[in-house]
Amino acid sequence: MENDKQLFEKLFRANRDRVFRLCCLYTGDTDQRKDLMQDIFIRVWENLSSYRGEAAMSTWIYRIALNTCLTHVRSLKRGLQTRLMPDGFDVLETEPPAGTEPSIEHLIRCINLLEPSERTIIGLYLEDLPQREIADILGISEANVRVKIHRIKQRLSEIAAEQFPQIRQAAV
Question: Where in the numbering of this chain does the RNA polymerase sigma factor 70 region 4 type domain appear (predicted)?
Answer without folding.
Answer: 107-156
